[in-house]
Amino acid sequence: MIDFHLDVRSGVSPYQQLVQQVQRALRLGLLSVGDQLPTVKEVVAKLAINPNTVLKAYRELEHLGLVTPRPGLGTFVTHSLADDSLAAHEPLRRELLGWLDKAQRAGLDADSIEALFLTTFRKATEVTP
Amino acid sequence: MKPVLRTQGLSKSYGSRPALIDVTLTVPAGRVVGLVGPNGAGKSTLLNLAAGMIAPTAGTIEVLGSRPAADAAQLARIGFVAQDTPVYAGLTVGDHLRMGRRLNPRWDDALAEGRVAQVGLDPAQKAGRLSGGQRAQLALTIAAAKRPELLIFDEPVASLDPLARRAFLQSLMEFVAELEVGVILSSHLLSDLERVCDHMIVLTGSRVQLTGDVEDLLATHYRLVAARGGLDALPPGVEVIHAEHTDRQSTLLVHDTVGAVPGLAADTEHLNLEDMILAYLTRAALGAVGARAPQTLEAQR
């Protein structure tokens, strides 16, 4: 079972935040096929949010083909987003740590590191029309 | 389904002092409605009219398709908790439940007992000795256990600390999920309303400034930033709610009812609910200056 959280200052709508958190959990392998999502009542009781927000998020996940509601039982994961690349996460993370270490020793502070990473990331993943 | 609330030219005066002027609105069924506005805007008056505690001076109001407090059946359909969640100080928690059982034809005893146990209220405790949070939970429990179709709360969380406030809203949302009950609540706390409400009514100076489903409201409000003078001529259907100018730049908060904003040559972004409501409250407060003493803005960030 995963746990949701909500950041009302993020500018991302609450229902989108729930959708993204499930997608992230699926990508990281925290959720896999057959796992159950928290019930609507459990989510609203924890986050103090409108039940319609949770229903909307679950409908969106269903529309994306990731989960299926089983009436009377709950909502279950039917498709995983974790693939063979999951195995590559750990070595990549170690390399990234090595790079971060290098950047710090070169005198970059946290803000500079983040800015450098984000601009490079955006440039590298930019889709040229 | 019948609208939860429908008013037409609804007005209420206390003597010569108007408390609500010409309110016409429709709230669809199945919503959690947030009622926002400064003190003295008429929020309590509107809620008391909906509960049938007072009668309109002019115009009509229908709640769940009927006149408020028309008969015993209509009374049973609505759970009303007045400001500061009043309870009977001299009665125990258990007494309150017994009274609820005797007075309400649709009383849900299992729900009442279950909730009291879940939130840790002692049935032998006198209600006068409960904390603010516990008192709010007791009032919510009684209102919900009467199994109404609509729950109405006047400032239920205003006097609660953040923890008790969150606990109250958690309980309320649990009831909404479980009982499929509609809710109208007034509050100053915009960030709380942002979590729980999917419909908004903004009331200032006895008049409705804005009403609608949150999703639609967010989709039609924008912040526009452009060079000074670049936004002087806006297309019809785009209403300026708030404007700020420096010598170089103009920043406008606008309501776009015709879908014209995406075609404008300006930086455009959507607003969050809090900024949108604050823009309306600010406009009303500025408009009140000169005409009479400015109302205190109590919207808390």
UniProtKB/TrEMBL annotation, chain A:
Signal sequence range: none
SMART domains registered for this protein in UniProt: HTH_GNTR (SM00345)
PROSITE patterns in alphabetical order: HTH_GNTR
Keyword field: DNA-binding, Transcription, Transcription regulation
HTH gntR-type domain segment(s): 12-80
GO terms of molecular function: DNA binding; DNA-binding transcription factor activity
PANTHER family: GNTR-FAMILY TRANSCRIPTIONAL REGULATOR, HTH-TYPE TRANSCRIPTIONAL REPRESSOR YTRA
The protein's name: GntR family transcriptional regulator
Organism: Actinoplanes auranticolor
Annotated gene: ytrA_1
Automatic annotation (TrEMBL), chain B:
GO molecular function, one term: ATP hydrolysis activity
Presence of keyword Transport: yes
Listed InterPro entries: AAA+_ATPase (IPR003593), ABC_transporter-like_ATP-bd (IPR003439), ABC_Transporter_VariousFunc (IPR051782), P-loop_NTPase (IPR027417)
Transmembrane segments annotated in the record for this chain: none
Keyword annotations: ATP-binding, Nucleotide-binding, Transport
Signal peptide start and end residues: none
ATP-binding found in the keyword field: yes
Entry protein name: ABC transporter ATP-binding protein
Start and end residues of each ABC transporter domain: 5-230
Pfam family, one: ABC_tran
